[in-house]
Amino acid sequence: xSPVEHVLDMLKQRIYRRRNITKHLIKLHEALLDxxxxxxxxxxxxxxxxxxxICSEQLPTRVGYTRN
Length: 68
Hints:
The chain is mainly alpha-helical. About 70% of the residues lie in helices and about 0% in strands. It has helices at about 5-15, 25-40, 40-50, 50-60. Helix 1 (about 5-15) runs antiparallel to helix 3 (about 40-50). The mean pLDDT is about 75.
């Protein structure tokens, strides 16, 4: 339900699509930064904007506290 989770999932998918996923930490870090810069801002904004609707749909179905 978190917008951050959606963005991180998108980042993970972009990394997995790369042909040469490296085992070198520095190269992986560079790839993550590169992909992070290439995620369109509208994707993040739409995730944040949809939270009001999602919360409105989910809150009535929950009873009591949720475990996190």
